[in-house]
Specification:
With about 400 residues, this protein is an alpha/beta fold. The protein has two domains: about 5-45 and about 285-380, Alpha-Beta Complex (Aspartate Aminotransferase, domain 1); about 65-285, Aspartate Aminotransferase, domain 2 (3-Layer(aba) Sandwich), CATH 3.40.640.10. It contains 14 helices and 13 strands. It has helices spanning about 5-10, 20-30, 50-60, 70-85, 100-110, 130-135, 155-160, 185-195, 235, 250-265, 270-280, 285-305, 335-345, 370-390; strands spanning about 35, 95-100, 120-125, 140-145, 165-170, 200-205, 230-235, 245-250, 315, 320-325, 345-350, 350, 360-365. The strands form three sheets. A seven-stranded mixed sheet has the order 2-8-7-6-5-3-4, sandwiched between helices. Strands 9-10-13-12 form a four-stranded antiparallel sheet. Strands 1-11 form a two-stranded parallel sheet. It starts with a helix and ends with a helix. Bound molecules: 4'-deoxy-4'-aminopyridoxal-5'-phosphate (PMP).
Amino acid sequence: MQLSSRITDLLGGGSDGWGVFLKARRMIGDGVSVTELTIGEHDIRTAAPILQEMHRAAIAGHTGYAAVPGTDSLRDAVAARVRERTGVSTTRDNVLITPGGQAALFAAHVAACDPGDTALYIDPYYATYPGTIRGVSAVPQRVPARAEDAFQPRPETIAAVAAGAKSLLINSPNNPTGVVYSRATLEGIARVCIDHDLWLISDEVYDTQVWTGEHVSPRALPDMAHRTLVVGSMSKSHAMTGSRCGWIVGPVEAIEHLTNLATHTTYGVPGYIQDAALFALSQGPEFEAEIAAPFARRRQLARGILAGQNAVSLVPADGAMYLMLDIRSTGMTGEEFANALLDQHHIAVMPGESFGDAAAGHIRVAMTIEDGEFGNAVSTLCKFAEELAA
Ligand code: PMP
């Protein structure tokens, strides 16, 4: 039987960028000890009190169909959090609870784009972005940010391809680069969205992982709330990746239609998961800071190690659980370097190319292993790069 081209072409005919990751997994399967710096997931598990609340809610009977847009109490809690963090008037009617940020990204593009519409996204990008856009039968158009600009996108580069497009997807703090978009960058992006009548889909799943400066949500910029769909998630902020709980915050009318979409796709998020998410949010910013702390610490550790050498340079990274390293001095592509590092030192990192052409000659290092082992891996990586560059 013929499958739809929408699903068979989801990856756009290219690789999905996970080659090195899969090779590392095969090596581990063969009994090789590999240091894995590939995946964006905490080295801690969901905190026990959150799981106890999940258990309590399930035993208490919250196991039936839950309200499709989310429970009132969780939508209220997300709205309150957004109000506190951004100052923008937000109620439960602005919030749809989704099974994770990824489902929210897909739904947001369904809301913004008709089949055939152009949907813009910034390169380097989180690996699912182009496939998510193809999945809604829109046409992904990448907009490169440059290493020379520390991967802050230039509004004029976006404006140059914005005519006729329907949406722009951005992500700050950024995966893979760790870059936090400045207020000036976001104001420039907002200007382009207003001038070209674009929906702005703002992926803010790393909003609690900002090491220096501030997280600015573009929904809070003048004239932006009615054209912005914010994607949020419990995955990164509360170490709840497996619970699949996220949200979209947007205009009431969009949320109403997105609720119809949810009724016809996911049918909502399990009630006991939502109760656990509500409990987790009630732990407040101190708890979120605790979850983020290991990444801040490891970033400092890596900066110390990187300061002692010249072969590898760090993209000024102010957020998220990743470091983007420029390894162009080695003469290798990111992919060649990542493969050689895995083969020779059993350290797995992601090639920059997995996240788009703009990150060529770079590697992404996830700061998701214990400090001592992390420091050793960064030192080995630097020595390896120095030998290659010499
Ligand atoms: N956006 C970005 C930038 C991500 O890195 C991830 C997860 N790695 C997601 C969205 C999706 O996260 P989740 O579906 O777990 O909320």
